[in-house]
TrEMBL record:
One of its GO terms (biological process) is vacuolar acidification. Keywords: Hydrogen ion transport, Ion transport, Membrane, Transmembrane, Transmembrane helix, Transport. This is V-type proton ATPase subunit a. It is found in: Membrane.
Amino acid sequence: MSASELWRSKTMKHCNLIMKRDASAPILQGLMHLNTVQFIDMNENVPAFSRTFSKDIAKIYDVEQKLNFMRTAIEHSTVRIPDQLKNIETNSIVSLEQELDKVIGEYKSLAADYISNRQRNDEIYEQLLVYKNLSKVDIKDQAERDNEEVKLQAQITGALVSDENADDSLNSVVFTIQRKLTYMVIKTLYRVTYGNIYYETFQFEERLGNDDESGDKDLVSLFVPGQESLARCQKVLNSFGAHMYEVPDNVETAKKNAVEALDAFNMTLLLSKQRQDNILAQTAKYIDFWTEMVHEQRQITHTMNMFNTHEDMVSCRCWIPEDNMERVRAEIEAIDFREHVTAKTMLVEEEVPKGVSPPTHFPTNKYTAVFQAIVSSYGTPTYKEINPAYFYLYQFPFTYSMMFGDMCHGFINAFVAFLLIFNEKKLEKIHNDMFELIFFGRYIIFIMSCYSMITGLIYNDFYALGFNVFGTTYKWALDTSGTKFVAENTKVYPFGIDATWHWADNSMIFLNSYKMKLSVVIGIMQMLFGLIVKLINLINQKKTAQIICVWIPEFGFMFAFFGYMVFCIIYKWLVHWPEDSNPPALINMLIQIFLSPGTIDPTNQLFNSNKVQSGVQTAVFLFAVIFALWLMLAEPIHEVIHMKKHPNPETDRALSDIIVQQVIHTIEYVLGCISHTASYLRLWALSLAHSQLAEVFFDQLLGISIKMTGVAGGALSLLITYGAFFGATIGVLCMMEALSAYLHCLRLAWIEFNSKFFTAEGYTFEPLNGECGYGLAITSDMVRSE
């Protein structure tokens, strides 16, 4: 697969597929594996629940739900899904549903028994812990002594005894309660008994049950005088979910019986768990195979719902790439022969209906897929329209590198991307949304970083430092007066920017001017190239009127004024300006073209001849005005003439609407040329921000340590500041700045470049495969509601 396949979308054939109803399922299954046929819905106006196979879709959805239930059970168990086996006995939805009903019924029965036995096992275990720790909450003697003192005090004072305390015997209650509720329970009991209770608590070290919240429990021994107080306490304990226990006469015997019961339940639970795991393990052998089978049947049944049905025959129209026609025919013939079809399946090529546009299809690989995804996020190219992704292959990393031009930072990102590419077989198994996004863009990150390294060499930026690789071309010498040293340029630096500029006092002035003008030149060249691409599209679509009325004035306006701007920038670069000269400010000079045409201020003179410059700029002004008027008037005139020759009440528009629309388009285009050119200055702005941040990090972190004189202090300082420098470099420059540059690239590609030629009015080619179809939950609900 070559990059040329991204140039234009694949040629599509409009076909009609006619076949026996009984043969439709195997034929669709074969075509699904080819992944090259997109079927057209012939029943768009038919509700989903009224289609022929909607009830079959509902049944498939039910089976899918049952499969999901078993898969969830497997994932929550210790069973692992092995390499899949093909189950020949369950090769249909009906047989699979019967098998799943049997398995699910048995599994649910075992699971219910297991839960019941586990609950009883937990109760016995808690009872055993209560028996083991009864001695730690035994306060019976103390409670009786305190109760006798209360009664004696009442007799001495002559206090009346209420009926409810007529029975003054102490009643013992032993219970367990969740630890977080212990304080609340005791406080409530204290209130309902008017403070006449005796209690002792003990915290179990062991966790009880499987619930994290209810696992921590306390053992409480409670003594209450009087039967009525006891009844109130029992109601309170029941409301809080406490477990009350009777104290056995022989605690040791009770503990022994509890241990024996625990052993029996543990064995029962073990056997029940083994039987559940056996069922899950047997199901796990086929779970993926069954899921794939149901998935295929779902898509096949959905596709059959698109067909027209004529007794025992079905038909449907479809789109097939021209390159794959022979493969599709061969597959259909092979299936007819294998299935012993009595009536041969026919695939008939038809003319594309008028007003219908074929789908857009671009074959991609793991490298080009990310570039095509960037285009598709903006819009799908119109059928046979030139694809912007073809130009993104070089343009995207190029514009990125102009904003992120640093040799070392580019190398770091390229190395990370290289590791992702080198280990892609292992890493593609990782399922994480954030990681998958980065992994999908590993190739574009790598190529952008490689371009950044090249641009870093041109900028002579290594962590924002300039390296004197080839030796500076400047030398210092006394001026003619012999009073000061001046830098003399002796030769041309072999490659990139002379490192001396990084250390010069006027470094920012020079580098900013260079990068700013370079951004404008690159931007105008890209926009003009976008207009040339638009011309190729119009020629391919045979729209001669559009070329004459729209393209020529658009290109002429931009080339006249902005082309002259590029010429002036390059001319000013090439001309030698002596130290005492006063080179013109290009911005003021270009503004004066429209403010005072034909007049050249001496401060704005660029050429040697004032007359030549005046004539050139007058011509630029006239061409810009002529092309703007051409763009404004030509299209409305052509449309009015066309409406008079070919009147159509449905599509004809009022003259005022035509004029207003074209005037708005002209104004938008003229202002857009200016704003889009200014937008390309982001190439300079982000490069400036990147270099300044890198320089600040170096000076304020590593620079402090380097300037230290003491060896010990310098080494310790370097150890500390290097960590901060490394973190800032990776986190801010290599990650945040790289993401910022990428987003600005996206803006330049989508708006400034695409707007010159890209209409994006197509729709994606979606062949029959495992990724298309109705939402089954919605469809099944429709069927059931009917």
